[in-house]
Amino acid sequence: MDTRNLVRGALIAGTSAAVTAVLVTALPVVAGQGQPSRGAARIAGKPNLNGIWQALNEANYDLEQHMARPALQLRAGPYGPVPAKEVIALGAVGSVPPGIGVVDGSIPYQPAALAKKRENQQNWLTRDPEVKCYQPGVPRATYMPQPFQIFQSEKALFFAYQYAGAARNIYLNDPGPAAVDSWMGHSIGKWEGDTLVIDVTGFNDLSWFDRAGNFHSEELHVVERYTPQGSDVLLYEATLEDKKVFTRPWKISMPLYRRLEKNARLMDFRCVEFVEELLYGAYRKKPLSQ
């Protein structure tokens, strides 16, 4: 799919017609390539973040530092944990690679919330929103193992994600509180020097941070910072606060890398269609064998 059509469709679905018109006509596009221009030139005196970006880490498996483990969902075995029966057929594909972590230390859960996190992990297959192709939320959308694209002009900022067609309109003029809580929240952006700062509120409580069961409530407040480290690297930092779940604010950080392939662009990943059998197969007149 041409990226311009992706943006246009996402905007029509999620924003007003007026905002749609402004963004689609204002964002710079390279003729014939379907992607915003790349280069060192600044935009209205600010860094040019236009491009396709992706994290290269294991954060979507587990934000915290972790060793490799045999499965995303485990049970007790005779000599240590083994894959739960629901995921054992996945073999090595369902294992967890080791990761150095993107959190400084441990996530500061309240005691009851930590118990829920561990319960989530033991029920990963049925609870993780990613399995059902729900919207990834913030900050998880940033480090999903798929790229996302930043569209920037002098008057507008828009983020499009390949995973599940997720999208965010970054308001540069604060329109006030979110009208309704949502998966991707309500994003207000500003510049602090060369750093793009995005304040995100208005979340529902349905998204997770990773496949390890780390979660939040509807009180989540995220402050993101995107700081150029050169033309093809961004330092991404996010401070997370949720007084219902955590004892204090905490932070994740990681580099984001520009995709440099020729004609790099977002592709279609319509995973909603891929999970129809999972979600609705049991309602067939003649269900398929499980």
Outline type? globular
> What's the CATH topology label?
Lipocalin
Total number of helices: 7
CATH superfamily: Calycin beta-barrel core domain
Please indicate the percent range of residues in DSSP E strands (runs of 2 or more): 15-25%
* Low confidence ranges: 1-26, 28-34
Instruction: Write down the overall mean pLDDT.
Output: 89
Largest sheet: 9 strands, antiparallel
CATH class descriptor? Mainly Beta
Q: Which sequence of SSEs, written as H and E, runs from N to C?
A: HHEEEHHHEEEEEEEEHH
CATH architecture: Beta Barrel
Strands across the major sheet, in which order?
6-5-4-1-11-10-9-8-7
Protein model, in words:
α1 (3-14) runs antiparallel to α2. Residues 1-26 and 28-34 have low confidence and may be disordered. It contains 7 helices and 11 strands. By secondary structure, it is an alpha+beta fold. 33% of the residues are buried.
Tags for this model:
about 290 residues; Lipocalin; 11 strands; disordered N terminus; nine-stranded antiparallel β-sheet; alpha+beta
Brief overview, please?
The protein is an alpha+beta fold. 18% of the residues lie in helices and 22% in strands. The chain has helices spanning 3-14, 17-26, 111-122, 124-127, 140-143, 271-274, 276-280; strands spanning 51-55, 74-75, 82-83, 148-152, 157-161, 167-170, 186-192, 195-201, 221-228, 233-241, 250-258.
What's the topology here?
Elements: H1 3-14, H2 17-26, E1 51-55, E2 74-75, E3 82-83, H3 111-122, H4 124-127, H5 140-143, E4 148-152, E5 157-161, E6 167-170, E7 186-192, E8 195-201, E9 221-228, E10 233-241, E11 250-258, H6 271-274, H7 276-280
Antiparallel strand pairs: 1-4, 1-11, 2-3, 4-5, 5-6, 7-8, 8-9, 9-10, 10-11
